[in-house]
Structure to design on (559 residues):
């Protein structure tokens, strides 16, 4: 639903708070929107030439420029007032305190506890969780040191050379993204298998020696069908390669889970299980035991730096007034575009090839969290919620889909993320010249998107009149630019927490539960039913599904 300033929905039945769209703070933002909706960024910069020097923030090592947004200081004030009216500070405090803000599952939401210092205390249901968190981190570190140091031996006595993480969703995207992002810091080869398509397992096992391979089975629930299927096939592959001795399994399989029973049922010794807890959401779990592959790759010290980076942003969120609070401002700018301008998507464009999987990671983080259509009270929301999040690294995207961003009919707010000095194994001069090109492109895109090119400017270049419209760039496309000097483990942690908290704040404003994901259930149930029907009796299907199923049966691999 696009925000319509003339339509005032009735207050939601049964709710104690007015819908956010019924508040005076919402109306105040709407009024500002009405005055600014047609104002071009060219005009905003002409009226306020120094806005670049003012409209930016820093958090940890991240410099965050918000000057190229279609807003004024007055808009930011109004958006911050809206955040306060929506109870954002209370929601932040409730999260940090371990209150069960995941109401539909009656769970605390405490990914921030995963990176809290050892000497703090966070009590959930009468139990301090911080000693548990550090006990697991210590066990992970001891294990990682043994594997990395060659002390942990495989079945035939040889050290581990390759780690294969098997998991999906939050048990894959976080570690896979982080491993790739921190490739320059990694000293172990890790691979990531997620899809139940056997091609994923098969391609990743290619060339591996079972005797030197360690499987890390990552699943919060340990019931996810893709992960259990891949893990079973990996176990068969291992046993086949090592002469069928089941005694090999404990040396080549470890588990990351909240479900000790499921792990034991699968045949993994719970001594080889690294635990986490139901108050860690899958998409918020990379700082938990789910990050073990990352720790194996970069070492325990690197992983602590990674958690430290997250903690820096956690403390910033918790302790900084809303008006200077970077994740809050980014969240509210997102609300400005999503709800007042009605822009449906948000692109994340890292000018860092190491961050290639960051947009995919954010898709789960944001879309699984805020892709909701009812509020906490179960009533339909009164305004749009999460946008479609997408993106690919620059400069590649420039030669592919940026055309639509520059000249299409949909305005796409973009985040441009730049890393000043990439960690590469090339001579310094070579590395610098590539970095100059990369960052020049990032800056050029920010300018081109904001300011465009008018028909007059095109004509002044002597362009044939028939082509003027084709060569005109409307501009006025907003961007956030985030710059960091290097992509260290800490900086990656900062980026992750920045987006995590942006999601939290937006969910708080929309009055939704950002921490459940009931929308993924129906497909799972139906798939289970259909698997049973492939070799069995037909279920009750529509004619389209029935035809497709029969076609699959006719063509499938025969035993
Ligand atoms: O870690 P697991 O329990 O295997 O869950 C893996 C993933 O699958 C689910 O369907 C959810 O949509 C994700 O939030 C979750 O991260």
């Amino acid at each position: 639903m696009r925000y319509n300033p003339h339509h005032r929905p009735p207050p939601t039945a049964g709710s104690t708070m007015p819908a956010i769209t019924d508040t005076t703070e919402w109306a105040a933002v709407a009024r500002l929107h009405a005055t600014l909706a047609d104002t071009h960024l060219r005009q905003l910069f002409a009226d306020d030439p120094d806005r670049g020097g003012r409209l930016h923030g820093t958090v940890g090592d991240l410099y965050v420029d918000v000057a190229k947004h279609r807003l004024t200081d007055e808009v930011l004030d109004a958006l911050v007032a809206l955040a306060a009216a929506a109870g954002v500070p209370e929601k932040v405090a409730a999260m940090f305190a371990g209150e069960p803000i995941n109401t539909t599952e009656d769970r605390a939401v405490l990914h921030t506890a995963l990176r809290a210092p050892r000497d703090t205390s966070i009590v959930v249901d009468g139990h301090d969780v911080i000693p548990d968190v550090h006990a697991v981190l210590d066990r992970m570190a001891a294990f990682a040191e043994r594997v990395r140091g060659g002390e942990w031996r495989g079945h035939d006595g040889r050290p581990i050379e390759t780690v294969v993480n098997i998991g999906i969703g939050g048990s894959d995207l976080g570690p896979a993204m982080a491993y790739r992002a921190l490739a320059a810091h990694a000293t172990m080869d890790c691979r990531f298998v997620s899809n139940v398509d056997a091609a994923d397992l098969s391609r990743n096992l290619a060339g591996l020696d079972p005797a030197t391979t360690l499987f890390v089975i990552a699943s919060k629930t340990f019931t996810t069908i893709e992960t259990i299927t891949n893990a079973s096939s990996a176990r068969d592959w291992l046993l086949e390669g090592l002469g069928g001795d089941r005694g090999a399994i404990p040396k080549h399989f470890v588990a990351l889970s909240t479900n000790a029973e499921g792990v034991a049922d699968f045949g993994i010794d719970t001594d080889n299980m690294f635990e986490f807890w139901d108050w860690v959401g899958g998409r918020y779990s990379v700082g938990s035991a789910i990050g073990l592959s990352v720790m194996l790759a970069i070492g325990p010290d690197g992983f602590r730096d990674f958690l430290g980076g997250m903690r820096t942003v956690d403390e910033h969120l918790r302790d900084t007034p809303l008006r200077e609070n970077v994740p809050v401002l980014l969240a509210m700018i997102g609300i400005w575009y999503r709800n007042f301008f009605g822009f449906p998507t948000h692109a994340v464009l890292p000018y860092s090839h190491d961050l290639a999987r960051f947009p995919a990671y954010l898709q789960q983080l944001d879309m699984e969290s805020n892709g909701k259509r009812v509020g906490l009270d179960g009533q339909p929301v009164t305004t749009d919620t999460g946008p479609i999040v997408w993106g690919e690294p620059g400069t590649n995207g420039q030669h592919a889909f940026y055309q639509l961003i520059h000249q299409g009919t949909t305005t796409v707010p973009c985040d441009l993320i730049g890393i000043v000095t990439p960690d590469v194994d090339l001579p310094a001069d070579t590395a610098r010249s590539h970095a100059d090109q990369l960052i020049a492109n990032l800056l050029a895109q920010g300018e081109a998107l904001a300011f465009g090119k008018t028909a007059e400017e095109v004509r002044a270049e002597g362009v044939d009149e028939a082509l003027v419209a084709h060569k005109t760039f409307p501009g006025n496309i907003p961007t956030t630019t985030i710059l960091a000097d290097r992509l260290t483990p800490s900086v990656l942690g900062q980026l992750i927490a920045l987006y995590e908290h942006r999601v939290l704040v937006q969910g708080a404003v929309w009055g939704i539960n950002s921490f459940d994901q009931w929308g993924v259930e129906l497909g799972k149930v139906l798939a289970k039913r259909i698997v049973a029907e492939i070799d069995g009796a037909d279920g009750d299907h529509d004619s389209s599904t029935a035809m497709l199923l029969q076609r699959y049966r006719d063509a499938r691999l025969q035993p």
